[in-house]
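Hi! If you just cloned this repository, the fastest way to understand the data is to look at a raw example. We've pasted two of them here, unedited. The first protein comes first, obviously.
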Amino acid sequence: MKNILILGICRTGKTTFSKMIQKEFSNYQIIEVDTIISALQRTVPNVPIGFIRDNLKENRLPEFLNLLIQKNINKNGKELGFIINGDSILPEDLFKYFGLKDMIVYYFVNEKLSPEQILENCRKFDSKEEWTTRRSDEELLDHFEFYKNIEKKIISECKEYNIKYIDTSENRKVILSQLLDEVKEKLNI
C-alpha cells in the first residue's frame, strides 16, 4: 500500500485534499504533522523536532515520521495507509529519510499569491477553528513572508529531486479534483 504525502506551504489546501483522499479511501489515516510537532515540543522539549520556522540545527522530524509510518503499516493484520499532511518537511529531507518508491508525494505552493493576498484569503475564507483567526494581520503577514522564502526553496528542491509540486493559487477546487483522480489512478483504483 502506498503512503501519500501532502506537503508544502501553509494555506494551500493540504488539509482539504487530505480529507478528500480519506473520504475515498477509508483505510487511509491522516497524520497531521503540526499536531505531532506541537505535542512533542510540549512533552519532550529537548528532542530536536520542530517546524521549519524553528530553524533547528538538526530537525529529526522526517526521521521520526518515517519510523512512525514503518512501525504502523500493518496493525492487527490490517494494512493501513497514511496521508501525511504538513509544511515542515523539505524535499531534501524527504529524499534523505523516506523510500519514495512506495509513496505518492505532492508539494503544494501558492506561487502566484503575495503574502497580502494569502492574508486576504484567510480573512475571507477561514473558519473560526483555523489557527489563522487567532493571529493578528501583522503576525500572519510575517508568517506568510517567511514561507515565501521557504516556497522558493521547495520549488528548487522539487525540481532537483524530481518531486511534483502544484501551485494551488488559482482554481484550487479543479486542481484538487484532478489530483484526486491522479491518486486513484496511482493506487490502481
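Ok, and the second one:
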Amino acid sequence: MSPLSHGDLRELTGSLERFRHPLNHRVIYTPGVQYLAERAGAYWLLDVIASYIGTSQMNAAIEADPRLGEMQFWHLDVRSDATATVLCRADSGEPEAIRQDIPFTDFPLDHADIWAAFDGEHWTLYLPSEH
C-alpha cells in the first residue's frame, strides 16, 4: 500500500454512506473520513473530535459563537517533532474554540482538516473534498 498523501484525500468526493462513531452516537462520518482514519491509523482523531461534541466545553463555545452549533472546522497540525495540535474553529481565520495538544503522533501527513456539520440530529464529519 502506498503512503497516504494529501492528493489521496482530495480524490474523495463524497457518498451517502455513513459510519457511526462507537462512543458518541450523535457523530457519524463519511467514507472519506473512514479512509483517512484507516489509512493514517488515526481513529484517535475521530475520538478527539467526538469527545468534544455535546460537552459543556463545546456548549460554552457554541454559546460564545453560535455558528459552532451548525458547522465546525477541525484542523490537525502535526509538527516535525511528532507533536500535534487539534483545533476547532467556527471558520477559517477565526479564533480557536477548542484546542487539544497531542504529545506524540505518527500521523503520516503534516496536517488534516475535518469539517463537522449538524443536521439537527447528527454531527456529520467529512473531508473538505466531500463538501
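That's it. A detail worth noticing about the second one: DSSP finds four helices and seven strands in the chain.
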